[in-house]
Amino acid sequence: MCFGRRGLIIIIIIVLSICGMLGFIVTVGAVTHAVTVDMHREVFCSVAVIGVLVYICAQLGIVGLIRESNSVMWFFVASMFVMCLVSLFICITGIMPYRVEEDSKVVVENAWKELLKGKPHNMQAIEVKYACCGKVGPQDYTENNIPESTSCFKNLQKEGGEKYQKGCLKEHSKEFGSLLLIFEAFYVSMIIFCILSLLISGFLLVQAY
Question: Are 141 and 116 in contact (CB under 8 A)?
Answer without folding.
Answer: no
